[in-house]
């Protein structure tokens, strides 16, 4: 079993849906990924230290089979979110996810201590590890993309029994009535939702009273949203990129109080780029080569904002 349920009582309420996902939403490459995880479980590793509060999440220790370890980790390519260092192996991911974390962390550093956290669409769980390193009681991520799910459990085998886990669930498969969270993160998700207001309403309902929502999204820099018919920066399944006033309005309509935009930043090719661990196209290829201020489709280049709202 990939998920050590007996070691993680915090996630046992979601075991039925998680096990069902393996049956109802199988992936053709899953047997290969499962075999990689099996082989990783047999790698000898003398654990020295786990570091969750630095830009690179690290599992320090000695691995006599370092070359084999590296090849197994590379076989889980593409690695999107990080960076990680496992037994001296640097996993240089497409996204420097520490940039995003460092932009938002000053605004939530007190609230995250001892919090029960949910991260919707958590990818390979880099931010979950940073949440745990910042003092979260438990950080739970849901991620329907099987490769990202496998990547988290690959690195967690070396990080040890940290208070974090990823379940292979889409938000539609997650049973919201079984747990209330102190903090919910939705980062890079809302512009993929056909009904963004429904998404925010759902976050509000899953929060405990006094809880905090952190929503990070692409934004349109004017007062009006960008309506996408087709692709944005070569991304499929993008429906609407909200404006800052529009996002504040949506969060307020969902019931949130003290809503604010705490950070706005253009995405750069330092933050998102191709690497040997993600060798496909990246941001540079998504921008107009003659005008990097616009995407290849002619839209304004990516700008992202972080919003915070609280449930009274």
Task: Using brief descriptors, characterize the structure shown.
312 residues, Rossmann fold, 27% strand
SSE layout:
Blueprint: H1 15-24, H2 30-41, E1 46-51, E2 57-62, H3 66-74, E3 81-82, E4 84-86, E5 89-91, E6 95-96, H4 97-108, E7 116-120, H5 126-133, E8 138-142, H6 146-159, E9 164-167, E10 181-187, H7 196-206, E11 207-218, E12 226-227, E13 240-241, H8 244-253, E14 257-266, H9 283-286, E15 287-288, E16 291-295, E17 303-310
Parallel strand pairs: 2-4, 3-6, 7-8, 7-10, 8-9, 10-11
Antiparallel strand pairs: 1-2, 4-5, 11-17, 12-13, 14-17, 15-16
Helix pairs in contact: 2-6
Can you tell me about this structure?
This protein is an alpha/beta fold and 312 residues long. It has one domain: 3-Layer(aba) Sandwich (Rossmann fold). Helix content is 29%, strand content 27%. It is built from 9 helices and 17 strands. The strands form 5 sheets. A 7-stranded mixed beta sheet has the order 9-8-7-10-11-17-14, with helices on both faces. Strands 1-2-4-5 form a 4-stranded mixed beta sheet. Helix 2 packs parallel to helix 6. The radius of gyration is 19 Å and the shape is globular. The mean pLDDT is 97.
Largest sheet: 7 strands, mixed
Task: Give the strand content.
Answer: 25-35%
Averaged pLDDT, please? 97
Query: If you compute it from the alpha carbons, what radius of gyration comes out, rounded to the nearest whole angstrom?
Result: 19 Å
Percent helix? 25-40%
Can you identify the CATH superfamily? Vaccinia Virus protein VP39
Give the CATH architecture.
3-Layer(aba) Sandwich
- Helix and strand content put the structural class at alpha/beta
The strand order across the widest sheet is 9-8-7-10-11-17-14
Query: If helices are DSSP runs of H or I spanning 4 or more residues, what is the number of helices?
Result: 9
Structural domain tally? 1
Distance from N terminus to C terminus (CA atoms, Å) equals: 40 Å
């Amino acid at each position: 079993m990939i998920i050590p349920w007996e070691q993680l009582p915090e996630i046992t309420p979601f075991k039925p849906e998680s096990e069902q996902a393996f049956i109802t939403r199988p992936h053709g490459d899953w047997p290969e990924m499962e075999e990689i995880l099996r082989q990783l479980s047999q790698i000898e590793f003398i654990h020295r230290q786990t570091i969750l509060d630095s830009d690179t999440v690290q599992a320090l220790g000695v691995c006599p089979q370092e070359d084999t370890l590296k090849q197994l980790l590379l076989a889980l390519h593409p690695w999107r979110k990080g960076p990680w260092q496992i037994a001296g192996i640097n996993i240089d991911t497409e996204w420097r996810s520490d940039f995003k974390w460092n932009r938002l962390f000053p605004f939530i550093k007190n609230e995250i201590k001892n919090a029960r956290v949910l991260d919707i669409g958590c990818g390979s769980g880099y931010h979950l590890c940073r949440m745990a390193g910042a003092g979260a009681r438990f950080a739970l991520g849901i991620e329907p993309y099987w490769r990202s799910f496998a990547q988290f459990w690959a690195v967690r085998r070396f990080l040890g029994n940290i208070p974090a886990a990823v379940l292979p669930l889409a938000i539609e498969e997650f049973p919201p009535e079984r747990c209330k969270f102190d903090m919910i993160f939705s980062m890079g998700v809302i512009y993929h939702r056909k009904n963004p207001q429904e998404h925010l309403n759902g976050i509000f309902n899953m929060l405990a009273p006094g809880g905090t929502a952190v929503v990070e999204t692409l934004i349109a820099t004017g007062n009006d949203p960008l309506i996408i018919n087709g692709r944005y920066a070569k991304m499929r399944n993008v429906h609407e990129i909200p404006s800052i006033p529009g996002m504040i309005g949506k969060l307020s309509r969902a019931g949130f109080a003290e809503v604010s935009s705490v950070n706005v930043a253009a995405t750069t090719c330092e933050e998102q780029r191709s690497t040997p661990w993600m060798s496909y196209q990246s941001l540079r290829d998504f921008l107009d080569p003659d005008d990097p201020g616009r995407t290849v489709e002619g839209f304004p280049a990516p700008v992202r904002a972080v919003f915070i709202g609280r449930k009274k």
